[in-house]
């Protein structure tokens, strides 16, 4: 009886143990020099918003300083839902990768709060690139046309109602 129970436990255990297990290969962060080479973009940005998606988080960033790869002032970045640590309202030094036409803060990125990145910022200070000038939103030329259709429909409807009332009164006057 004991042997049968041991066999059952062994079979269940063998079925539940994964055949392949892997650990993260980013046990130690690379130097800032190596990180600068490995990543597509290096920026200091403020996290304006953190939007939770089904499998990830979406960070809305305002870029304060760019050292590589980015010239825009506003940016949307994907971050892993499980490992992401970015908090709204705080500035970070981000090391980003380009992925599927967008930006990603990858799992092993040496991203850290800007206040804790003094050594990295010393290395990066001579590599700063200019950001695009802050542009005022342009007035949309077709925006005034948005009111034309509803106003036209209201005028036509009003004319039909007015015409119907006049026609009804005129008919009523002939029948009396």
UniProtKB/TrEMBL annotation:
Residues 1-23 form the signal peptide. Keywords: Membrane, Signal, Transmembrane, Transmembrane helix. It comes from the Bacteria. The chain crosses the membrane at residues 145-165. This is Tissue inhibitor of metalloproteinase. It comes from Paenibacillus planticolens.
């Amino acid at each position: 009886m004991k042997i049968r129970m041991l066999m059952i436990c062994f079979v269940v255990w063998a079925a539940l143990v994964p055949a392949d297990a892997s650990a993260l290969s980013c046990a130690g962060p690379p130097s800032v020099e190596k990180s600068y080479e490995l990543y597509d973009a290096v920026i200091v940005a403020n996290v304006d918003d953190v939007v939770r998606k089904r499998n990830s988080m979406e960070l809305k960033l305002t870029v304060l300083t760019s050292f590589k790869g980015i010239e825009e002032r506003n940016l949307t970045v994907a971050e892993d839902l499980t490992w992401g640590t970015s908090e709204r309202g705080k500035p970070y030094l981000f090391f980003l990768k380009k992925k599927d036409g967008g930006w990603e803060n990858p799992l092993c990125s040496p991203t850290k709060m800007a206040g804790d990145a003094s050594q990295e910022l010393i290395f990066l200070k001579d590599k700063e690139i200019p950001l695009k000038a802050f542009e005022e939103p342009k007035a949309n030329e077709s925006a005034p046309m948005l009111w034309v259709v509803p106003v036209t429909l209201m005028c036509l409807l009003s004319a039909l109602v007015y015409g119907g009332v006049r026609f009804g009164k005129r008919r009523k006057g002939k029948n009396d």
